[in-house]
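Hey L., structure's done. Input below.
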Amino acid sequence: MNKKKINFSFELLRLLLSLWVVNHHCYKEFYKYKKALFHVPTFMIMSFYFYCNTLKAKDVIKIKQRFQRILIPYIIWPILIIILNNILFKLPKFHLYNKKLLLNDLVIQLIFGQKYHNIFYYQFNLIFLTILFTIISFLLNKSLVFILQISLIIAYISQYSYWNIYTFKKYSVIIKYSLGNILELLPFAVIGVILCHFNITRKLKKFKGLAIFYIGIILFLILKFEIFARIRGFYYPGVFLNIGGINIFILFSLFSIKNKIIIFLLKIITKFTGGIYYIHVTCFYLLQNKILFIKDKTFKGVIFIYITCYITCFLGNKISYKTKYKYLFN
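Output:
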């Protein structure tokens, strides 16, 4: 069986987006760049771009693999974190959450993707949307793309009418920032499917120079000027972030890295982006009271955390190699 051909431009994009995420949570100067929170939209677009063909083919084996890949970290990391927290709770300068976590905390975390490991709100939404899209694919496969397009329109109507925020704002932070984000993240997932279904990135390669020029213009305009009305929401409301995510994704899709040295380096440094996302906040909490430049949220701290998480994932991957637990680190 031939190995799946890897597009190293997308691997480079994963690396940059992963660094973007760590900066978001661990770098105090990141607020200067909050106008362009394109990392999560681009990740979601990419995730469903690569899931599209599996959906259309209703490939049960690959669907099962996807659920294993996203559910195993979602369930096991919160369990490991709660155990670690309660072991270190009484040790000075190594505690995570300044309190002993209970079984009830774990249950809430697993239901909503938030309680103590709050970054898993994204994983919660990824799982929910994967289930939703998969059900639609099996029930109405021929109408999949049309139904998803309608859902995208409904999602934006709910955002711009503020129906979404009015519906969920009355609930606790845990509920509103998990359930409330479903209709904000859904459009990115739909765009990923549309880009793949219509082979848009492949078609644009025929006009690479022109496409890059217009992508540059679009990104400049939406960042420099208020072309799209900013609306209230939870994390990622409005068309603006989708336009940015689409253009970043397409930009990287236009390139093909063929240099053997660069490919060799990318094979090394682009590994474990998933694992780094899963544990970088926990790493920050563990080290912030021991290392000053991490506590001060400096860029040096960001690099240190990224490397520490990479090494942790490298070792974890070696230990769990050829088992499903490798998904904790990959």
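The mean pLDDT is 93. Residues 8-328 form one domain.

-- N.
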